[in-house]
Amino acid sequence: MTNRKPAILSITIIFLCLTHLGLPDQAAKPSLNPDGIQKALEYSKNLNGLSLVMMQNGKIIFEDYHNGFTKDDAHLLASATKSFSGAILAAMTEDKLVSSFDEKVSQTITEWAVDPLKSQITLRELLNLTSGLDPGPIGRILGYVQALESKAIFKPGTVFQYGPAPYQIFGEVVKRKVSGETPLEYLTRRIFKPISLVPTGWRYGQDNNPGLATGANMKATEWIKFGEFIRDRGSWEGRQIIKADLIDELLKPSAVNPAYGIGFWLEANPDIDVEESGRIIKNEQAAVEKDRNKTKSPFKIIMSAGAGKQRLYIIDSLNLVIVRQGKASAFSDAEFLTRLLSPPGKE
């Protein structure tokens, strides 16, 4: 086994929890105002932003397209694609295709059963990136079988490592579990069609399997539907598509990285392009106590993030979902959210 130390221990990337962003105190019940929206729009636009769309209570309340982008244009979501795999796992659990989020991957990938480390990896650990596997090269779409060959480096559940391999492995799990459908076809039938979401395109690997780590291409007004589906805990226009408690599982942090759930960043801001940099991210605010039982959903602000500063924010206290698409820049989540939620007249 390699002696390589986890990058998470050697790289100090400080996460800014929302309580340290200069945002209004939670008790102050921050609200949207035209001044804040305009400040956030100008900030995003000036840093290679392409679109900014906001949905509140299931209705689009603001949209703007700029820097040559239009409402009809789609954009690659990059690593934000990862969030869809969590929804697939939730649907598979509800459909009894898997017993739970903590089912061993080796129950499906039976060739792993003889490996002392791989045999212990759960589906949850695979998707919250604590499997201990070599995470693979950032930004590449690995073939599913190629990803299965990833080496087990650490004991499952002990190290957070960001990369595409675990999500591509999950793609093979889905293929073996779901008869007659690809992972994308299952996702489309179970979630996209019920919420009327139509992707513009999807990237495939050399093995002709859809990329689950990075691959989705969507218009802002389509992507935001998925955010609303998550915000409303698996419900769409009054119809429960996926049970709420299964959606909640996507928003539970791991012990080794409290800033990451299953495809979502939790109450924190990476402020770097994880896909472009290849760096591992650590939340230095891990000791912050979180009471997740007082509100409808177990989160305050969560985020799906991809290279080029693709962002899907969900602010539950405001019943608000935001999509921001753009090109690579120095865009800061902290700065954007501070401008958006600051009281009138304040930065």
Distance from first to last alpha carbon: 51 Å
Q: What percent of residues adopt helix (DSSP H or I)?
A: 25-40%
Q: H/E element string?
A: HHEEEHHHHHEEHEEHEHEEEH
| CATH H-tier superfamily | DD-peptidase/beta-lactamase superfamily
- Cα-atom Rg, whole angstroms? 19 Å
Strand proportion, as a percent range, falls in 5-15%
- The CATH class, by name, is Alpha Beta
Taken together, the total number of domains comes to 1
Uncertain regions spanning at least 5 consecutive residues? 1-28, 268-299
Helix count from the secondary structure assignment: 11
Largest sheet: 6 strands, antiparallel
**CATH fold name:** Beta-lactamase
Average pLDDT, rounded to a whole number, is 85
Structural class: alpha+beta
Give the number of DSSP strands.
11
CATH architecture classification name: 3-Layer(aba) Sandwich
Strand order of the largest sheet: 2-1-11-10-9-8
Estimate the global geometry from the Cα principal axes: globular
Describe the structure.
This protein is 27% helix and 14% strand. It is of the alpha+beta class and 347 residues long. The strands form three sheets. Strands 2-1-11-10-9-8 form a six-stranded antiparallel sheet, sandwiched between helices. A three-stranded antiparallel sheet has the order 3-5-4. The protein has a two-stranded antiparallel sheet with strand order 6-7. Residues 1-28 and 268-299 have low confidence and may be disordered.
